[in-house]
Amino acid sequence: MTINRRDLALSTLALSALALTTPVLAASAEEEAVAKKVEAFRLAQIAADPKALGALCWDDLSYSHSSGKVEDKATFITNATDGKSKFLSIEYKDPTIKVVGPTAIVRFHWLGEQEMAADGKKVSTNLHILMNWQKQGDEWKLLSRAATKL
């Protein structure tokens, strides 16, 4: 079998193209996996589901509210599911996800409305959210969250 320069160049070009596209495809698959976890988190917040929220968060979670209050995992889950308020809606607008190794940086514009159990008063929230997710084995878990009022 004879290999000429043209065949060698085409083989090299094909291998180079494959090497360049493989990380992009892997990053897209990881970004999609993170996006699914982010949506599961949003739904768990609306449902005030402590089991689902617990499964999505690291044990060392740092959850920061726009008021400056910072909660650990146990406190966040207790306060998010205590029934003192009920989310009527939560929308994560314009999300961006960037996967960097075993970490994902997620940003979005939060629009929410909740109803207070004590008096039925409705409260709207307009926030910018930063979430950091980290891969634990094959699962993505929320490591930290910070909110800023808009």
Automatic annotation (TrEMBL):
Keywords: Signal. InterPro entries: DUF4440, NTF2-like_dom_sf. It comes from the Bacteria. Residues 1-26 form the signal peptide. It holds the Pfam family DUF4440. Residues 35-142 form the DUF4440 domain. The keyword Transmembrane helix does not apply. This is Uncharacterized protein DUF4440. It comes from Bradyrhizobium stylosanthis.
